[in-house]
């Protein structure tokens, strides 16, 4: 099992409790109280992922973002001319420093969540959309995703 502290120093994450979030207490960017809160948020996300039987992590790569698009399309089956998000929009948001996270059951993405910063700059995160595949319903995957999002925001001072 890889701890949040080990992940913070760049070791590879593995196992159902894995996240790729760096621990705020290692960054030196936030006061001790914020570090403690961010560290607790990382541990809560890891615990929720473990309970749901998934791995959770943030995404920035194009293939992962396209998988989020396809997951949302499979969940909501929107009008093709009006999807909830596009791969291009997800890519632009992550390039601008915003959040996209996903949950995996083995190699299969079973949930995703995305949000973006709002005013005042970088202190509020708007959680825009989250979804879980029907095959993973009733496992609390959504809770794991939301806790990952909270930890991510707290590590950035939110």
Could you tell me the CATH topology label. Aminopeptidase
Structural class: alpha+beta
CA gyration radius, whole angstroms: 15 Å
Approximately how much helix is present in the residues?
Answer: 40-55%
Helix and strand pattern: HHHEHHEEEH
Helix count equals 6
The biggest sheet amounts to: 4 strands, antiparallel
Kindly estimate the percentage of residues that lie in beta strands according to DSSP.
15-25%
Taken together, the total number of domains comes to 1
CATH architecture: 3-Layer(aba) Sandwich
Low-confidence stretches: 1-18, 22-33
Tally of DSSP β-strands? 4
CATH superfamily: Gcn5-related N-acetyltransferase (GNAT)
Mean pLDDT over the residues: 81
End-to-end CA span: 28 Å
Which quaternary structure do these chains form? single chain
Strand order of the largest sheet: 1-2-3-4
Overall, the morphology is globular
For this structure, what is the CATH class? Alpha Beta
Give a nutshell description of this structure.
With 158 residues, the chain is an alpha+beta fold. The chain contains 6 helices and 4 strands. A 4-stranded antiparallel β-sheet has the order 1-2-3-4, sandwiched between helices.
Explain this structure.
- The radius of gyration is 15 Å and the shape is globular.
- It has 6 helices and 4 strands.
- It has 158 residues and is α+β, with helices and mostly antiparallel strands.
- 44% of the residues lie in helices and 20% in strands.
- A hairpin with a 2-residue loop joins strand 2 and strand 3.
- A 4-stranded antiparallel β-sheet has the order 1-2-3-4, sandwiched between helices.
- The chain has one domain: Aminopeptidase (3-Layer(aba) Sandwich), CATH 3.40.630.30.
- The N terminus is likely disordered.
- 35% of the residues are buried.
């Amino acid at each position: 099992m890889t701890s949040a502290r080990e992940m913070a120093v760049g070791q590879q994450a593995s196992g159902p409790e894995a996240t790729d979030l760096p621990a705020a207490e290692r960054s030196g960017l936030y006061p001790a109280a914020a570090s403690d809160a961010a560290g607790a948020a990382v541990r809560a996300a890891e615990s929720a992922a473990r309970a749901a039987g998934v791995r959770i992590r943030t995404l920035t790569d194009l293939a992962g973002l396209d998988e989020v698009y396809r997951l949302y399309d499979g969940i909501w089956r929107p009008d093709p001319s009006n999807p909830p998000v596009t791969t291009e929009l997800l890519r632009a948001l992550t390039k601008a420093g915003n959040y996209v996270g996903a949950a995996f059951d083995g190699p299969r993405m079973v949930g995703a969540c995305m949000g973006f910063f709002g005013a005042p700059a970088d202190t509020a995160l708007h959680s825009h959309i989250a979804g879980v595949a029907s095959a993973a319903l009733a496992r609390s995957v959504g809770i794991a995703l939301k806790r990952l999002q909270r930890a991510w925001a707290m590590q950035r001072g939110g």
